[in-house]
C-alpha cells in the first residue's frame, strides 16, 4: 500500500502544469481595440487650435501702439534737450572758469611787486625832494659842482622813472594840470582860497601819487581850492 501511494504521488508530481488562462478574453481585446481607435480619431488640442479660424486684429491696436511709441519718443526728446542744456551750461561754466583763472593769474603777475613797489616809492620821494631843495638861482656857472650834482640827480631820477614804468609803476602829479579833486586818487591835506580858480581844483601837490598797472598804489596828497 505504501508503495502504491508513493507511485501515485510521483506520477502527479511528474505531470506538467496546465497553462494558465489568459487574463484577457477575445471580447475584452475587441473592446480595447475599439477604444484605441476612438482615441486616435479624437482631435488633439493643438489640432483644434490649428483648425480654429484666425481672429481678426482690432483696428485700435495700431493706434495704441503708435501712441505708446510717440510717448516714448517725446520722453527721449525731453531727455536729449535736458542733456544738451546741461552740456551747454557746463561748457559756459568751464569757459568762465578759464577767463576768471586767466584774469587772476594776470593780476597776480601785475601786482606781484606791489609790496616791493610800496617800499621803493619812498626812495623815489627822497630823490625828488633832493632835487626840489636846490633853488634855480643857485644853478649858475659859478656853482659848477652844484650844477653837476643836480644834473646827476635829475638823470638818475629820469632813468629810475623810466625803469619803473616798464614794470607798470607810474608817478603822477595832479597839480600840474590843475585836476579836479578825485577822492579815489587824491588825498586832500588842506584847503585854501585861490583867486581865478574853481572850487575843488587841486592847486598844490604835497606828495606825488603812484599807479601800479592802472591801480592806485598810493594816493597823491594835495591842497584843494576853496573860495566860498
Automatic annotation (TrEMBL):
A Pfam family that the UniProt record links to this protein: GrpE
Gene3D superfamilies the UniProt entry points to: 3.90.20.20, Head domain of nucleotide exchange factor GrpE
Any one biological process term the GO annotation gives: protein import into mitochondrial matrix
InterPro entries per record: GrpE, GrpE_CC, GrpE_head
Biased composition regions of type Polar residues, renumbered to the chain: 19-28
Residue spans of biased composition, Low complexity class: 41-50
Region entry Disordered, spans: 1-72
GO cellular component: PAM complex, Tim23 associated import motor
Transmembrane segments: none
Subcellular location: Mitochondrion matrix
MF terms (GO), sorted A to Z: adenyl-nucleotide exchange factor activity; protein homodimerization activity; protein-folding chaperone binding; unfolded protein binding
Ranges annotated as biased composition (Basic and acidic residues): 51-72
Signal sequence coordinates: none
Keyword tags: Chaperone, Mitochondrion
HAMAP family: GrpE
Function: Essential component of the PAM complex, a complex required for the translocation of transit peptide-containing proteins from the inner membrane into the mitochondrial matrix in an ATP-dependent manner.
Family affiliation: Belongs to the GrpE family.
Official protein name in the record: GrpE protein homolog
Amino acid at each position: 500500500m505504501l508503495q502504491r501511494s508513493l507511485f501515485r504521488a510521483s506520477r502527479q508530481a511528474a505531470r506538467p502544469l496546465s497553462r494558465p488562462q489568459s487574463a484577457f478574453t477575445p471580447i475584452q481585446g475587441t473592446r480595447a481595440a475599439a477604444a484605441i481607435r476612438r482615441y486616435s480619431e479624437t482631435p488633439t488640442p493643438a489640432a483644434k487650435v490649428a483648425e480654429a479660424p484666425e481672429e481678426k486684429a482690432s483696428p485700435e491696436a495700431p493706434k495704441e501702439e503708435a501712441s505708446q511709441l510717440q510717448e516714448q519718443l517725446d520722453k527721449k526728446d525731453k531727455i536729449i534737450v535736458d542733456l544738451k542744456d546741461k552740456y551747454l551750461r557746463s561748457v559756459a561754466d568751464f569757459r568762465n572758469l578759464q577767463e576768471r583763472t586767466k584774469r587772476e593769474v594776470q593780476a597776480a603777475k601785475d601786482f606781484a611787486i606791489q609790496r616791493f613797489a610800496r617800499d621803493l616809492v619812498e626812495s623815489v620821494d627822497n630823490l625828488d625832494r633832493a632835487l626840489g631843495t636846490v633853488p634855480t638861482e643857485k644853478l649858475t656857472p659859478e656853482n659848477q659842482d652844484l650844477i653837476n650834482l643836480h644834473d646827476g640827480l635829475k638823470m638818475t631820477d629820469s632813468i629810475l622813472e623810466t625803469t619803473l614804468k616798464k614794470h607798470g609803476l607810474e608817478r603822477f602829479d595832479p597839480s600840474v594840470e590843475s585836476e579836479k579833486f578825485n577822492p579815489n586818487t587824491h588825498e586832500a591835506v588842506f584847503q585854501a582860497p585861490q583867486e581865478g580858480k574853481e572850487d575843488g581844483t587841486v592847486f598844490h601837490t604835497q606828495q606825488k601819487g603812484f599807479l601800479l598797472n592802472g591801480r592806485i598804489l598810493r594816493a597823491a596828497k594835495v591842497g584843494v581850492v576853496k573860495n566860498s
